[in-house]
Amino acid sequence: MTYQRRTVGIVAAIVLALLGTMGLVGYVQGAKDDAVAGEKLVKVYVASDAIPAGTSVNSLEDQITTEKVPAKVKAQDAVTNLDAVKGKVTTVNIVAGEQLVKSRFASSVSTSTAKGVPAGMFGATVALDPERALGGQVRAGDHVAIVGVTAANGASETGTATMLVSNVLITSVQIDGENGDDPNKKEVTSAPTGKFMVTFALTPGDLEKVVNSANGGGIWLAADPAGAAQ
Question: Domains of the chain by range and CATH?
Answer without folding.
Answer: 41-106 (3.90.1210.10), 111-229 (no CATH)
